[in-house]
Design goal:
- It is globular, with a radius of gyration of 20 Å.
- A 9-stranded mixed beta sheet has the order 7-6-5-4-3-2-1-8-9.
- Strand 3, helix 3 and strand 4 (108-113) form a beta-alpha-beta unit.
- It is of the alpha/beta class and 361 residues long.
- The chain has helices at 39-52, 70-79, 95-104, 118-125, 130-144, 162-172, 187-190, 192-195, 199-215, 276-282, 284-287, 305-308, 313-320, 336-344, and strands at 8-12, 56-60, 83-88, 108-113, 148-154, 176-181, 221-225, 245-248, 254-255.
- The mean pLDDT is 95.
- The protein has 14 helices and 9 strands.
- The structure holds iron/sulfur cluster (SF4) (2 copies).
- One iron/sulfur cluster binds at residues 17, 19-21, 24, 26, 61-63, 89, 112, 356.
């Protein structure tokens, strides 16, 4: 293999989820339960990943705990030497299901919260009692001794509570917390007017994170993901297209990122047809935006090209209609006006959420 292997495999086990977050990272068209890969195929995928040199597997969804074979998959990951991380909403977690995962060798849990408070949290998840279940899940995880990261997705309807989110993470005994502004593609783009903060709210969140980093230095790691729309330059999406991550969808499509199913005019490779190593090395979907050869101006002559890799391909497609364009969030991109106009058109009052409903998308 001439391309260095990916560091991580993102195993999207299912799109099923009892929650309905309006910023969900899943595609707008959700995979059905009947089409999901079976246990044996997921185990083979992990075997292939380990042989390639992948170090970590992230079990994600949807809600990965909706899969009854999750402990078997975790045990298999441990058996082939993959560090396992479970990304969960926590609402299906209970003492018995957690004990099964711990016994199988689960290394880490990332627990998502919609807010620091129950009512607004339950409103975003569109599930009464979800927040209370998450609090209980966090306590169980810490008591079990599994390292815990909390994830909070930030937007215009909860930005003022970032200090409370950081306090909650500290009180619950998380080792790490991620304060991540919403990314605006897929469901997030559909709900952009209901979610996009203003600059003052962004500044509040930046200040809260800076203060907490000082106060909690050495005790809790705080990751902060800023909203692309107010950045001068884009993020290095997935650490560069086809460079660090491999995403396998519930039905076995292999993608450079979870949103890449939106890319037009390209075949989506599948674990049913060929090996992960062959897909990583040769599939056009992976090679088409890898490195810098594909870049148009202004990226082609930009000194940041190997830092941000031209930004997000799916965002370029969603906003500018061209996956091969410079990410419009970049202030040098010819399509940057699209982002400026979206900010200017942000309504004073947020519209109602369009919830991500499994089965009705
Ligand atoms: S973002 Fe919300 S709806 Fe989407 S998978 Fe996560 S918990 Fe479920
Ligand atoms: S021009 Fe391209 S490479 Fe340069 S900062 Fe903007 S998106 Fe990144």
């Amino acid at each position: 293999m001439t391309t260095p292997p990916p560091m991580s495999l993102l195993a999207e086990l299912t799109h099923r989820c009892p929650l309905q977050c309006p910023y969900c990272s899943n595609p707008l068209r959700l995979d059905t339960r009947a089409a999901e890969l079976d246990t044996a195929t997921w185990c083979r995928v992990m075997d292939e990943a380990a042989i390639m040199g992948v170090l970590q597997v992230h079990f994600s969804g949807g809600e990965p705990m909706a899969r009854s074979d999750l402990p078997d998959l975790v045990r298999h990951a441990a058996g082939v030497g993959l560090y396992s991380n479970l990304i969960t909403s926590g609402v299906l977690l209970n003492p018995a299901s957690l004990a099964a995962l711990a016994d199988a060798g689960l290394d880490h849990i990332q627990l998502s919260f919609q807010d620091a408070l129950p009512d607004p949290g339950d409103r975003v998840a569109n599930m009464t009692g979800a927040h209370a279940k998450k609090l209980e899940a966090a306590r169980l995880i810490v008591a079990e001794g599994i390292p815990l990261t909390l994830n909070f997705v930030v937007h215009r309807q909860n930005a003022e509570r970032v200090p409370a989110m950081l306090l909650l993470a500290e009180q619950l005994g998380a080792r790490r917390v991620e304060i991540a502004h919403t990314q605006y593609y897929g469901w997030g783009l559909l709900n952009r007017d209901a979610l996009l903060p203003d600059r003052a709210q962004l500044a509040l969140t930046e200040q809260a994170v800076a203060e907490a980093r000082t106060r909690l230095a050495g005790r809790m790691t705080i990751d902060f993901v800023t909203p692309d729309y107010y950045a001068e330059e884009p993020k290095p999406c997935m650490g560069g297209w086809g460079q660090r991550f491999m995403n396998v969808s519930p039905t076995g499509r292999v993608l450079p990122c979870h949103a890449a199913e939106s890319i037009p005019n390209v075949e989506f490779p599948s674990v049913a047809e060929t090996s992960l190593a062959d897909i990583w090395e040769n599939a056009p979907l992976f090679t088409m935006f890898r490195g810098t050869d594909w870049m148009p101006e202004p990226c082609r002559s930009c000194s940041a090209q190997t830092q941000d890799w031209g930004g997000c391909r799916c965002q370029a497609l969603a906003l500018a209609g061209k996956a091969g364009a410079a990410d419009p969030v970049c202030h040098k991109a010819p399509d940057h006006g699209i982002v400026e106009r979206a900010i200017a058109a942000r309504p004073e009052t947020p519209p109602a959420f369009r919830y991500r409903r499994y089965g009705s998308a």
